[in-house]
Amino acid sequence: MPYIYVQTNHSAVDAKSLLKKLSTVSAKAIGKPEAYIQTALEADSEMTFAGTDDPTAFIQCKSIGLDDSLTESISAAICSFCEIELSIPKDRIYIEFVGPTGKM
């Protein structure tokens, strides 16, 4: 189940709508059915990036069996989404990709 977590120092006007849109964008970018996508948002966090508190975001993208060859296109899709929906410049977004094995 892909999990997309967004932490930002930006205020989200309509978090529910934002998360639903992010779910759709993420499903398409990752190539998995939206029925398996989980999204979470932590807005208004105290954060800095490059020494400033200008709008920024940390995003964690977890997906079992995540294909390394997709990280560039997933990053582009999620960064574009954040730039449009949250007005966060792409160069102020950090994405961590995690591909757990699914084994315990």
In short, what is this structure?
This protein has helices at residues 15-30, 71-86, and strands at 3-8, 38-42, 57-62, 93-98. It is α/β, with parallel strands linked by helices.
Overview of the structural elements:
The model has no long low-confidence stretch (mean pLDDT 94). The protein has a four-stranded mixed β-sheet, covered by helices on one side. With 104 residues, it is an alpha/beta fold. The chain has a single domain, classed as Macrophage Migration Inhibitory Factor. It contains two helices and four strands.
Task: Give, in order, the helices and strands.
Answer: EHEEHE
Portion in helices: 25-40%
Q: What's the CATH architecture? A: 2-Layer Sandwich
Regions with little confidence, pLDDT below 50 for 5+ residues: none
Mean pLDDT: 94
